[in-house]
Amino acid sequence: MRVYREKKTLGASERNEGQDFVDHRSQDNPQRLHAAIVDPDAIALFVNAFSKGVPDLPAMMRALKLSAYDGLEALRLVEKPVPEPKAGQVLIKVEAAAVNPSDLMFIRGRYGFTKPLPTVPGFEASGRVVAGNGRYPRWLVGRRVACGVQGGEDGTWAEYVLVDAKGCIPLLPRVSFEQGASLLVNPFTAWALLEQAERGRHRAVVQTAAASALGQMVLRLAVRAELPMIHIVRRAEQVEALRALGAAVVLDSSAPGFNKALARHCNDLAATLALDAVAGDTPARLLRAMPPKSKVVVYGALSEQEVKLSPGELIFRDQGVEGFWLSSYLGSLSLPGLLYRALQVQRALATDLQTKVRSRIPLEEAVAGIRDYQERMTSGKILLTP
Ligand SMILES: NC(=O)c1ccc[n+]([C@@H]2O[C@H](COP(=O)([O-])OP(=O)(O)OC[C@H]3O[C@@H](n4cnc5c(N)ncnc54)[C@H](OP(=O)(O)O)[C@@H]3O)[C@@H](O)[C@H]2O)c1
């Protein structure tokens, strides 16, 4: 089965968005890289920088400083010097910075790593490169980019951020800063998770937290690829919202009879892969409902609970659980491979990989805005606009 090779005919409105979404995910194939290089979108990426001037840099900038891993209580707006790029780095003037569940975990010290304090949180953003140190970093100066910050550097919740030039994705002219701010974390993860479904030749896939921004991306990609899915949400109102996006099977985990219904659908569809963002006892519930030899990929921990498993599923039903982290996935890609995937992802940013933004918030109002997002996550993302 070649799940993502099938290209469905696109509607006129989608074509107008410049969408031509054929999957090229699985290989760093030289022919495909060649195709990207002669592609008009790829050419646009090379030429779009030169008409843009680089502004004079101020000495100081505003940034949100985290002084303790105590969450929003420990976040303050401060003035600090604009940093200078070290070898291999670029300085980006931030236009929009995303707020994701990973940021909420990070500011409470519950993410996969911590940074020395004080630090500036924020893992992704979009903006314009205003300085670079090194050949490739200097080539990026003037360009509109999306960027991701890992490592020990300060993050994106600031007016300026330093990033490794290799962590920058030049934006197509038609991709706004607003769309670009959420280009890396969720779209790349949705793409990579479905890549796993394709590689494993799974006939059907289950996903939890399906009403999340990422879950909706996975849903739309799967609908386009005609990959059957079972979507799990935790509130009744989320069921209808996902049906409206084309989901055939949506189950509410808070409804009576959920476990039985899940097992029935998993068996009917032969769903042998589950994508889980909840953790706690959810992977075990999924495995019990799925056929022998099934696998759960845990990529999120929204419950903030340890994964609890009974050995029976693993031993007697030959099932498995593994993790997924975008940083490791991105680190496994070559720079041309990363840029090529970024081109494909950008083409789908206005459609399958779109992120609903509910508000844009200046740094001064960030704490209240993030609190509001935390309380109503399914209502859409907030963007920090320094
Ligand atoms: N591993 C990686 O590299 C990677 C990369 C990207 C994203 N992620 C993970 O992907 C997940 C989704 O991210 P996102 O940005 O798409 O989220 P989002 O749009 O902010 O939405 C979060 C969703 O999770 C639901 N939720 C919250 N707590 C839950 C719980 N305890 N049980 C079930 N559902 C819960 C919310 O539903 P309510 O409205 O009902 O609260 C909401 O629909 C997160 O866990 C994130 O960390 C992981």
- Average predicted confidence as pLDDT: 89
Present as ligands are:
NADP nicotinamide-adenine-dinucleotide phosphate
Approximate strand percentage: 15-25%
Low-confidence runs (pLDDT<50, min 5 residues)?
1-28
What integer value in Å does the Rg equal?
21 Å
- What is the CATH architecture term of the largest domain? Alpha-Beta Complex
**CATH fold naming of the largest domain:** Quinone Oxidoreductase, Chain A, domain 1
Q: How many strands appear in the DSSP assignment? A: 15
Give the class-level CATH name of the largest domain: Alpha Beta
Give the domain tally.
2
Helices and strands, in N-to-C order?
Answer: HHHEEEHEHEEEHHEHEHEHEHEHEHHEHE
In CATH, what is the homologous superfamily of the largest domain? Medium-chain alcohol dehydrogenases, catalytic domain
User: What overall geometry do the principal axes of the alpha carbons give?
Assistant: globular
Largest sheet: 7 strands, mixed
Supply the helix-strand structural class: alpha/beta
- Quickly count the helices: 15
Helix content percent band: 25-40%
Whole-Å distance between the termini?
A: 47 Å
